[in-house]
Write a structure and sequence with these properties.
The protein has one domain (about 1-195). The protein has helices spanning about 1-20, 20-25, 35-55, 65-80, 100-120, 130-150, 165-195; strands at about 95, 100. The protein has a two-stranded antiparallel sheet with strand order 1-2. With about 220 residues, it is mainly alpha-helical. Helix 1 (about 1-20) packs antiparallel against helix 5 (about 100-120), helix 3 crosses helix 5 (about 100-120) and helix 4 crosses helix 5 (about 100-120). Helix content is about 65%, strand content about 0%. The model is unreliable at about 210-219 (pLDDT under 50).
Amino acid sequence: MDVVVALFRFALAAFALVGTQEIWLHGQLDGLLFFTNQSGFMLAVVMIWGGIASLLKRRQPPAWFKGGVTLFLVITGLVAYFVLKPEASDAPQIAFGLTSGQIEHQLDPVLAFVDFLVFDAHRRMRGRYPAFWLLYLLAYVVFSTLRGVFFPDLAYPYGFIDRADLGWGGLGLNVLLYGVGFYALGWVIVGLDRLLPRHALLGSAGRHEGAGERWPVRA
């Protein structure tokens, strides 16, 4: 079963890299400004790491990293569905009849969440992780805002953090609202981790020595 887990993870890493190919293949480095693409690269890293660990029965990626990537992918999917404008109907298909938007906004988030539920060892996360993950969001917003302030001719990556359009008050309100949602979803990930069986539902994660942290559940 570990071979199946590894193949699933390698396939998901491949999708993550295909979805971000305009950056690493075509050199469009401004794509790194987008949270979606940053999450895609982190997904590729954690899936390759986890796939190799499953094959070799070695230590899995640490819970703070795997949980964080899962959270970022869930947020990517939810924001794309509820906030962002639909992808253009004529968007080019890049693999298996799918567009980059379909891969990054729909396929990757769903498969990353499935991997977390089914293939991960659980009961490894600590109560401080949601706040730790929230720091990433705040750092992202601070960077995007400073970039817009010092380089006003450059576009903001997302309209809901566009200070030039929203003003400082609107930006602050959005950061507060999205931050609360981000933090709450982080606790959903931690809560699921504490409810699910310690050992992976499929595969040997958590069963063999070195599968990952086996910390007691505490804040």
